[in-house]
Write a structure and sequence with these properties.
The complex is a heterodimer of chains A (344) and B (385).
Chain A: H1 2-27, H2 30-40, H3 47-56, H4 63-71, E1 79-80, E2 87-88, E3 112-113, E4 118-119, H5 120-155, H6 160-173, H7 177-191, H8 208-238, H9 241-248, H10 253-265, H11 267-290, H12 296-305, H13 309-337
Antiparallel strand pairs in A: 1-2, 3-4
Helix pairs in contact in A: 1-13, 2-3, 5-6, 5-8, 5-11, 5-12, 5-13, 6-8, 7-8, 8-10, 8-11, 9-10, 11-12, 11-13, 12-13
Chain B: H1 8-18, H2 20-35, H3 41-45, H4 50-67, H5 69-72, E1 91-92, E2 99-100, H6 111-147, H7 149-164, H8 167-174, H9 184-192, H10 195-208, H11 212-234, H12 247-275, H13 279-287, H14 291-302, H15 304-327, H16 339-347, H17 358-384
Antiparallel strand pairs in B: 1-2
């Protein structure tokens, strides 16, 4: 088991290197660099000026050298100012090294955000904290509700409870965040006036008034999906021979469901919940944009639309890390829960 | 602002009348299907349950709306009538006497016509992209699950690499306007669009390799059709000029296939891993069948139930992805009438006016709901077999 996890962790590091390479390649495509130069200079800067800016700030160094600098395995070189001949930092708003030094992700330096004019770490980590709070509330709402709906529906296939709960969960999988967000805002904020259609004030303090809409908007899509998977798994388990055996030997329906069916039926939803995280990350981006909540998703959108290279790389690193950790937990948990699949 | 408005009942009546070709087509399809449902196999069985009927009806409703959108929509989706800016539902257009049934948006366009034309964009891209994703995912997922070992490690690594991207980051990287200047979207399209050809060639080869009279015609048709579409889509050089796609649409298409193929891969791989332990696979192995025969003709048909359901769900999921692209203003033109873009435009102004937001929202929701209901009904039926 330990070697399995160690191998998986090794795979994770490899995945992160590959992914950041891909992202690094994409953000450094010529059209994107032009966009960056234009957003940092004024919009009418000539082609030559852009080129000079890119050259001056080291964007024209070889690809792998720059990736190595970002990683922290190649020394970052300071810029020699033309006017004074003295080495200067690249961006005045970040304390970039003035002498050659290893300063990359491995050393804990995530680089410099050109959009927010601050080091990436001071922007990214508070945003992550804000999103963490949002995610926590979403999970608190989503997981119990969806498992309950799924088990109640799948327990007696074809019953009236099953049919009505199934339609509810189907309807909820059909409403992505940008749809449910609009509907909830119209109903609860514009029409009834109970809740706030913006979560911007949540940065100063979370209240029921400003935080409910983002949480339910984000939870509603996942609820339907997890509930359907739980139901499907529960239905399948309830048709197994051993359930019939348990019923025939005289166990009550409740005992059969709780003791025999539940554990087997919860294997599939466990994986599904874990694999929901990538989707939740996307949902976070939609919800935070819609409700103006300054978290990770908002940062990612700002970074991507301004081609803020270092910030975008930081965001990808974080999200990839979250996704891979959840996948690892999902696989280890699946093997642990299901004795038929042994870890080799 | 126009002063003249019609009442709520007149609006509903007007909407029902506007959809007349759709009702007609629905009646032509649904009535015979209901009558002859006993003879129509799996499709006929869908009409046994309320969920199935609702699913089929909603999906067909949007399909016909997309087909007849020129007749259904009373106005041009991009046409602006200045007096109708932010007009409330049911406002009468001055001079012409037409009615903005669901009101006008901030650029004074008819919300109803835009919703109807939006269905056209969504119903072309979403199912097509899903089918390609299905081909890619199946062709790679079967060997990964069946062989296991190194093939599985490599393919799963690649799939996880894509799955590890948050979809929205992937879209921001893949669907920026600048990227069409680079060969990247075309290279990806070149890779994805070859998969259906490979899939069908192997499918026919494994089954009919000892019966050349069946094999060669089938292979010829596959390669001819596949090659024709391939040349048209990837190089935009269809000799007949029928198959063509605009660069930004190709870009969206590729991004959506790229984002959903790994999901199919994971499902097919899981199913293959499960099914390969069954007795009939062992029997086929003992008979001396080749691995690809077993994968395509023993494992795949037995995985069809979950796969059909997944395809239905995935078309809905692709619709949602497409809406996400529109919501973030990626790929599609800002004036495009597709639902995602319309929701983006309207949701920014939700504090002032709510009526332009609701039609695209309910359109997207009902279409995905229809697909999900259909998937659910199909799942029920395939379990009964």
């Amino acid at each position: 088991m330990l070697t399995f996890i160690l191998r998986r962790l090794g795979g994770m590091v490899l995945t992160m290197v590959c992914l950041t390479l891909v992202v690094f390649f994409m953000v450094n495509l010529e059209p994107n660099l032009t966009k960056l130069a234009l957003s940092q200079m004024d919009m009418r800067a000539s082609r030559a000026d852009q080129e000079q800016w890119l050259e001056r700030n080291g964007y024209r160094q070889p690809f792998l050298v720059r990736y190595g600098q970002w990683m922290g395995v190649v020394k970052k070189q300071p810029i020699i100012s033309r006017a004074t001949g003295q080495p200067t930092a690249r961006f005045s708003f970040c304390n970039d090294p003035v002498e050659p030094a290893y300063s990359g992700v491995l050393q804990g330096d995530f680089g410099c955000s050109t959009k927010f004019r601050t080091p990436v770490a001071t922007k990214l980590f508070p945003a992550l904290g804000a999103t963490g709070i949002l995610m926590m509330w979403v999970l608190i709402v989503m997981v119990p509700v969806s498992l309950l709906i799924g088990i109640l529906a799948g327990m007696r296939e074809g019953s009236r409870t099953d049919r009505s709960l199934s339609v509810v969960s189907i309807a909820s999988t059909a409403t992505p965040e940008y749809v449910s967000g609009v509907i909830f805002t119209v109903v609860f904020a514009s029409w009834l006036g109970w809740l706030n259609g913006s979560a911007a004030s949540a940065a100063r303090g979370i209240t029921f008034y400003n935080f409910t809409l983002p949480v339910i908007t984000l939870a509603i899509y996942g609820i339907g999906y997890i509930a359907r998977m739980t139901r499907a798994s529960m239905v399948e388990v309830m048709m197994q021979q051993y359930i019939r055996t348990a019923r025939l030997k005289g166990l009550s329906f409740r005992a059969v469901v709780v003791k025999h069916a539940l554990r087997n039926a919860l294997i599939a939803p466990f994986t599904v919940i874990m694999l929901q995280f990538p989707w939740l990350l996307t949902g976070v981006v939609v919800v935070e944009t819609m409700f103006r909540y300054q978290g990770f998703g908002y940062t990612l959108v700002e970074a991507a639309s301004n081609n803020d290279i270092d910030l975008l790389l930081g965001c990808s690193l974080v999200s990839v890390f979250v996704v891979l950790i959840t996948q690892l937990i999902s696989d280890v948990g699946y093997a642990y829960l299901n004795p038929r699949i042994r870890v080799q | 602002m126009p002063t003249e408005r019609i009442g709520a009942i007149a609006i509903i009546w007007g909407l029902l009348v506007q959809f007349w070709p759709v009702w007609l087509a629905l009646a032509i399809i649904l009535v015979p299907s209901m009558v002859y449902r006993r003879r129509l196999g799996l499709y006929g069985q869908l009409f046994d349950t309320g969920v199935g009927i609702a699913g089929v009806a909603i999906c067909l409703f949007w399909l016909f709306t997309a087909i007849f959108s020129q007749v259904v929509a009373p106005f041009d989706p991009l046409g602006q009538i200045v007096a109708m800016k932010d007009a409330l539902p049911g406002s009468v257009v001055p001079d012409s006497g037409g009615v903005y049934l669901l009101g006008g948006d901030k650029l004074a366009r008819d919300v109803f016509s835009r919703m109807v034309y939006g269905s056209r964009i969504v119903l072309i891209i979403a199912p097509a992209a899903t089918l390609f994703a299905l081909m890619v995912g199946t062709t790679l997922g079967l060997p990964a699950g069946y062989y296991g070992g190194r093939i599985d490690t490599i393919l799963s690594f690649l799939a996880n690499l894509v799955l590890a991207f948050p979809v929205i980051l992937l879209f921001y990287l893949l669907v920026t306007p600048g990227i069409m200047d680079t060969p990247l979207p075309y290279a990806l399209a070149g890779v994805f669009f070859i998969f259906p050809v490979i899939f069908f060639s192997v499918l026919f080869w494994t089954r009919f390799k000892n019966r050349p009279e069946r094999l060669y015609p089938l292979l010829a048709v596959t390669i001819l059709l596949g090659g024709w579409v391939y040349v048209g889509l990837v190089f935009d050089k269809d000799p007949l000029g029928i198959v063509s796609i605009r660069p930004n649409e190709l870009n969206i298409f590729v991004a959506v296939v790229f984002a959903s193929a790994p999901g199919v891969f994971r499902i097919v791989r899981g199913l293959a891993m499960d099914i390969k332990t069954r007795d009939y696979v062992a029997a086929a192995q003992t008979r001396g069948e080749g691995p690809w025969y077993i994968m395509l003709w023993e494992i795949l048909p037995n995985a069809r139930g979950p796969l059909i359901v997944d395809t239905c769900l995935r078309i809905g999921y692709t619709t949602i992805l497409l809406g996400t692209l529109g919501y973030f203003g990626l790929g599609l033109a800002p004036e495009s009438p597709d639902w995602g873009t319309a929701i983006k435009e309207a949701s920014r102004l939700l504090r002032a006016t709510i009526h332009p937001a609701l039609p695209p929202v309910f359109a997207l929701m009902s279409f995905v709901l229809g697909l999900n209901l259909l998937a659910d009904a199909l799942r029920e039926q395939s379990l009964k077999d």
